[in-house]
Structure formats: C-alpha cells, structure tokens
Amino acid sequence: MPVWQVYFGLVIILTALFSLNRPKRVSAAGRKAPEVDPALRAAVILLIIVAGFRLIDAEYSDEWNYRRGYEAVLFSSFDPLSSDFFFGLLTYILTRISTNPQLLIFACAAITNALIGYAIYRNSRFWKLAILLHLLMGSYFASWNIIRQYLAVGILAAALSHLFSRDWKKYFLYVAVASGFHSSALVMIPAYFILTRKAWSRLQVLCTIAALLVLIYASSYLPAIFESSGYAQYAELMLSDESYGVRGLRVIAWSLPAAVAFFFQKSIRKLDPKRADVLMNAALISALIMISSLQFVYISRLDPYFSIITLLLISLFPHLFRGIERKVVTVVIFACYSAFSWFLLAGFAVPFQWRIALF
Questions:
Q1: Domain extent at residue 50
Q2: How far is the C-alpha of 302 from the C-alpha of 188, rounded, in Å?
C-alpha cells in the first residue's frame, strides 16, 4: 500500500487516541512527571510497530544499504576501530541473535522512538501536539531512512534537560555517545554555545549571519570534509550534476516557527523563561539550514538535531493564547503541517510493506 496511507492512518489513530485520553497533568519544564501517561506509552508502541516492521524496498536507499550492511556483518568480525563504533557494536550483537536484518530495523525504531517520545513528553507543555508534529513535519518518516543519525538524535533528545539547564559537561557526554552512532552529532558541541545564548541579541544575529554565509558557501569545503570523515559518497554527489536541493515548501514550513518566535519572543520568554532562548535559537538555526539546503539537499541532514527542539517550540505556540483562540491556533498548526506532510509523501512512489518476522 502507499506510504501516505499508512502514515496518515497512524496520524488519525494517534489523534483519536489523544482526543479520547483523559486530561492529565503535563510534566513541568525540566521536571520529571510523576508517571508516564498511558496515551504516551500507546503512542510510542504504535510508532515502534509501524517503523519496526516496515520494509521500504527502494534500491540504494539508506534502508536498503543498512539491510545489505547487516548481511555483510554476518560474515565478518567486529572492528573496534571502525567509525560509528556504537552502531557497529549494536549491529554486530544483533547479527549474533538473528540473521534477519529486520531485527536491526526494529531495534533502531524502538530505541529512537522511545527516546524521542519520552523527551517530548518530559519537555513539552503540549506533548500530544508535539508527537503529532514529529510525524507531520516528517522527522518520523526521515528516521526510516537515516537510521543511524536518528539514533544519535534520540540520544541527544534524551539530553535536552541538560541543554536547557546549561549543564555542558553532561550534555557533551551525551554528544560523545551519540557520535558513536553518527559522527555528525559532534556538530552539537559548537551548536551548544549558540543555542544557549540569548535569542535575537545583536551578537546572536551576527553569529547567525556568519553561520548562514558558511552554509551558503558549503559547496566549496564540504566535499573535502566528507572525504576525510568517511562519507565520500556525499562528496561525489555534491560535485556531480545530480546534486539537488530541498523543496521550497520545506523552507517555508521550517521558517515559519522562527518568524513567529521573533514576533512573540517576549511572550515566549515570559511563558517559559528557562528554555525560551534555546527553543528560539534552534528554530532559527533549523530555518537557516533549510534555506542553505535549497542548493544541496545533504546540508539538511544537519537539521534533525535542531528540528526536534523546534517541535517543542511549535507546541508552545497555542499557550500564547487563551480560550477559543488557543483551540483555533492548535487546529491551524495541525492543519497546516498535515497539508505539508501530504505534499511531502504524496509523491513517494515506493510502497509500504510489512515484515513481521525478526528471527
């Protein structure tokens, strides 16, 4: 069946689940909730089932390469000096349990969605909307393809409380672990010092302009970085005539949260003073990455580390209003990103298939 049918079927089920769920006290920012909402458990289980038992059989896609790579590990020994050490170790352990590469897909889906789901629940004032945005903004769908990177994103999502509290020692420890699954996670070390500064300050604007220029001229130096870091395939694509950029619609969808945050920055700071600057800075960086990706799509692979934080910002927007206005804003956000998700998935031709067996 088409991927969009499965995807929107899941959105409808989650929306119904959240609508019927009895209201429960949301965990305060930075504090652990007394118990996990049963609706969250159900939602995470559904996300894991769909992602874990999927088969998107697109030749030479990232998932296809992971499946072939898993089969190759079956006949080799673990190399402790390999890049992405922790992912290599995870793969090696799983191959000793089952020869079926579906086990790797399921394990990665379980780890990623459990970590992201819990991080959203703990850090969002409106976690149900944030979970739906995880799907509708495409990050859930992207995790089906760039599997290693979303394992790293999940680990860093679990460390958001340390980012919000400016505890750089603990946060960098998580970055080190995440980089063992995907080395691109190391970008969050310099990003930490940008994210934790006051949003929209003069220095922050200058840093943002500098970062935009760096991204705009990325084609002049990124191939060399890719070559030296073991991602030579990206360097080849970047220098080839087949390189392409993201759609303009994605740029609009990613730029709107930063624009809204700019005009409502005082209200956002008043609503959530501890996390406001990190949330707004993440939205701005995410928008800049997407703008820069108009030329070369692989720059957008840096975005998941920031867009997962931007989800929390967007889920904060309804709380800038009261009464019926809050409900209207919530519906507008849901409707707009549902339309965006439809345009994103409608042209995806590879069918969704189920693979239930893990062993």
A1: 3-354
A2: 10
Q: Look up residue 202 and give its amino acid.
A: R
CB 322 within 8 A of CB 271: no
Between these two residues, 215 and 190, which has the higher pLDDT value? 190
359 falls within a domain: no
Higher pLDDT, 4 or 325: 325
Say if residues 286 and 194 touch (Cβ distance below 8 Å).
no
Please check whether residue 144 is in contact with residue 67, taking contact to mean a CB–CB distance below 8 angstroms: no
Average pLDDT score over residue span 83-91:
86
CA distances from residue 111 to 10, 47, 83, 289, 293 in whole angstroms, order as listed: 19, 11, 20, 26, 28
Q: What does the alpha-carbon distance between residue 113 and residue 294 come to, in Å, rounded to a whole number?
A: 28
Q: pLDDT digits over 54-67, tens only?
A: 998 777 678 888 98
pLDDT at 71: 85
Q: 55 forms bridges with which residues in the sheet?
A: 353
Q: Which of 84, 72, 142, 104 is nearest to 303 (CA)?
A: 142
345 within domain boundaries:
yes
Specify whether the CB–CB gap between 250 and 290 falls below 8 A: yes
Structural domain total, the chain:
1
**Scanning the structure block, which residue is given the tokens 């970085």?**
225
